[in-house]
Amino acid sequence: MSHFDLSSLRFLVVDDNVHMRRIVRMLLMSYGAREVMDAEDGALALEIFNSQLPDIVIADWSMPVFDGLELTRMLRNTDSSPNAYVPIIMMTGHSERKRVIEARDAGVTEFLCKPISARDLYVRILSAVLKPRPFIKTKNFFGPDRRRFVNPNFGGNDRRATNTEDDPELDAVTEEMQRAG
Amino acid sequence: MSASNSYEVIEPPSDLRSKVKVLTGRQAAEFDPVARAEQALTRMSVSFPLWMNEEVETLSSTHKEAKAAGFKGEATENFYRSAHNLRGQAATMGFPVVGNTAGLVCELIEARGEEELPAALIASIIQAVRAMVREDAKGLSNEMAAALFSELRGLTASEVARLEAAQE
Q1: CATH second-level architecture of B48-167?
Q2: Is residue A172 within 8 angstroms of chain B, CB to CB?
Q3: Burial B95-123 (b: 16+ CB within 10 A, else e)
């Protein structure tokens, strides 16, 4: 797998659990990130998002007050959000198909099932950054093109492999970036 | 931007690819972000037993509050959330069997509909979670944890089937 300098990316981690926030922050810093903001609930996350404009949001689904799904809908609101196109990686202990579809329909960019690993989170970040999808706007939906959303429980051959060592699309993007310097 | 009658396709105005660089040569050889993160996770793991104890205390106290509230309302939502947190993060903290056992509480609450929850079974699950963490039982290689989980999983499956049938 190619290695990337992620030091210029600014992250916002949203999880009501202090231990998960610590773990995710530590993983991001280990990848080279220098700026990691965090919030313990959706309301604080929205406040930080509006004032600090992070590049990527990593949010837990299950939170008090308003959850990760509601947060996603607010961030994707083109009337009120300062960046409705921000990549959103949803972390969750829910892996059922209906939950994945619900997250996709709210406008989540990537879905990350817990337990999370150093590799899985890194791969989701690279996928969100290196393979940006066009956004689709309909009467009832605004978010990344849902046709490329991957079910984490899918058992067949996966075009967007979870292991980037086997992902020709990501390799092609990497080569292009290397040529561009 | 392209559009049809029913939808628009919009290219995001900002491209984060301009903010990341592919590492090459010596830089790439010396910096493996995933390996570095895994090493950091290993260093952090000395705190995991303590954190797991804190999570189990939260589960126990939210359980007491939910039980006192007749497993209804906000107290039960908090109880569900603490079990769900444990289900999601116990494996990352090296205690997968604890996560799986706590997840049984989630299965029961998700299946309940308007039915009464099996309070005795829930109490047994909480006791099992406490015992596993106290005994540092991390996975199914621990015989006590394997036996407890297997027994509780079977009982939970029966209760979930009963709860679902009652709603039909």
Answers
A1: Up-down Bundle (1.20)
A2: no
A3: bbbbbbbbbbbbbbbebbeeeebbeebbe
